[in-house]
Amino acid sequence: MPYAKPIFQRVALAGLALCLSLLVAETAARVLRLGPSVYDLSTRWFQFSHLPGVDYEFRPGVAYGTGFINDDSMRDLPRNVEKPDGVYRIACIGDSICAGLGVAAGETFSRVWERSLRDRGVAAEVLNFGVPGYALRHILAALHARTLKYDPDMVVYAFCLNDAQEESYELEALKHLLSPAQRDFYQRTRGAAGTLLSRSRLYNLVRYGVASLRQPAEPAPAPKPEDDPQFAAIRAGAGAGYFRGLYQSEARRALLAEGFLEFAALADEHGFTAVVAIFPVSGRVGSGLEAVYEFIAETATDAGLHLVDLRAAFQEAGGDRLFADPLHPNARGHRVAAEALDRELSRMLP
After folding, report:
1. Which of 67, 156, 208, 268 sits 20 to 30 Å CA-CA off 149?
2. What's the pLDDT tens digit per position in 102-157?
3. In Å, how far are 70, 93, 131 from 128, measured between CA atoms?
4. Which of 110, 102, 99 is CA-nearest to residue 134?
5. What is the side-by-side strand order in the sheet with 306-309?
6. Is residue 310 within 8 Å of 109, Cβ to Cβ?
7. Residue 208 in contact with residue 186, Cβ under 8 Å?
8. Domain 52-169+224-348 is classified in which CATH homologous superfamily?
9. pLDDT, averaged across the chain
């Protein structure tokens, strides 16, 4: 048929034009970050983070206990990104234990350790990158996106038993500020998995627009601290059982092994010494956690990481008297941790 070829060409050209238009629109949506903004929403201490995989971070400039969060969302002194000449830089990463929940800014183990090193004439900085509520995935994502730019010589991961869980009360408290449509858009555009369509910002923008017309612009119910499963278990006297169950999951055990291997690979790639410091929980959590601690220690050493197990140091220095609550050390506990880290790791310093 004489018109078949021109019609086919026109259809093909129209299809190509549509594909190019969609590609341009998708690129524009990504570059301009079109969609509902979540980055102007915050709770008292936290805000959503632009950093990939991090989800949330401290709000710069806010008061947190004694002291303020610095300009790079750290509970620390103001720090220069560029490492001073001749200074050995140690970065401490982790969750609320590392951040020093419940103690003054100057009483965190990182600050105590830094003062001890300097009092001995060691030119060193000990930086605190801890953020309450961070799970293993957040800690590694923040290591990639924030910590490594400070060019650390050593990275100490302050490991707590709850790092294997995915739940984060702090993140859920931020998410409750979002409408259902905003929450769906945030979760879909932050996720790396899924189909090509589900990862399209343009598609999710259209999906958000339609959902906004259907759904009331009301936030989800505010989460409560007691909604966190670990705290509910501890209050019920089942804390030890909760943590044992956490590490009986093959998926969680594999996640921990993969995370430690990633930590070791980053150390090799960027030339820093990688350390896992296991912080114990209080005896008020319950007994029978020895096998859990041993699994964590074995997984760390199998990954080629340096290990500092703080259980013996805490037990010898007073046990439960070193805790402000079942999970968090008090000022004395932080001092014991700093002394043990200094004692175990000083041979690695110049």
Report:
1. 67
2. 999 999 999 999 999 999 999 999 999 999 999 999 999 999 999 999 999 999 99
3. 11, 7, 9
4. 99
5. 124-128, 88-94, 154-159, 273-278, 306-309
6. no
7. no
8. SGNH hydrolase (3.40.50.1110)
9. 90
